Amino acid sequence: MLTVVCKAENTLGEGPVWDKYKNRILWVDILNQAIHSFQLDEKVHTQMAVDGLIGAIAIESEDTIMAAIANTVCRINMATGKTSVIRKFDFDIKQIRFNDGKCDARGRFWIGTMAVDGVGNKGNLYCLDGSTVKSKISNVGCSNGIAWSADNKRLYYIDSFAARVDVFDFDLETGHIHNARTLVKFSEEDGIPDGMTIDTAGTLWIAFWDGWRVAGYDSLSGKLVHTIEMPVARPTSCVFGGKDMNYLFITSARTELSQDELLRQPLAGSLFQYGPLPHTGLG
Q1: How far apart are CA 4 and CA 9, in angstroms?
Q2: Is 90 noted as a catalytic residue in this protein?
C-alpha cells in the first residue's frame, strides 16, 4: 500500500536515507537548500537549512551525517547543527553541483555531480575515503542512483542522461570498480531513471522522473519484476527503512511543473511510503 508520510511540498526532494539510530527518515531538498527529517514514532517533521545546494547526505554515526553541500563534503551534528568541512572539491559551483550519493559497506562516500544547467556530460562519480577523493567515472551527464549487491561484489550505477543501469565489478577492500556493462536500457516512455536502492532479494528499486512510477528490476537479469504506480510525475529516489527495513520510502519533486500540473498532482514534493514488502532493504 502506498501512503503519504509527509506532505513536504519539496521543490526537489531527493536522497532519502534511513537513520536506524533515531527511527527516522532523512532526505534533502536540493534547490531549497535544506535537510528534512521525519521521525516515525512521533510523526514529527523538521528541517535544517544549509548554505548551498545540497546533493546528498549519508549517516555517519548516531549523531552525525555527511552532507555534500555546494563544493564541499561536511560533517554535521544533527542535534547541535555544528558543521565542519571534511573535503573541498575543485569545481565551480556556478557550473557544477552535487547530485546523489551513498556510503558503501566500508563507509566510503560515493557522490556524483552534474552540470547546474543540466547540459552536457560534465559530471563525475567520486569516492571520498576519509579526506582522500578519487574520480571513479567521468563524462557523466547526471550522476544518480548507486547500489551494491549483498555480497559487495557488484556496484550498480545510473547516469540519468544515459537512461540505463550499468553494473561494475566491485572490490570492497580497495573500492576499485571495473568491467562496466549495461544491465538495463530504458526508453523515453519509461521516464528518466533517477535514484535507486536494492533489497536482500537482489531487486533494484528505481524512481523514474516523469515516469509516474517506481519499479523493481532483477539485478542479475535486468527483468522488470514490480511496478509501483505513483500519484506524482516526478518520484526522485527511494530507500528502505522502518524498524524491520521492509518499507520503501520515496521522495518526489515539484520543480518546473506548471500550475495546471500541480493542480493535477497536489502531492508533488511529498514523501511517500510503500509496503510492507516481502524482502528487506540493504540500507
Answers
A1: 12
A2: no
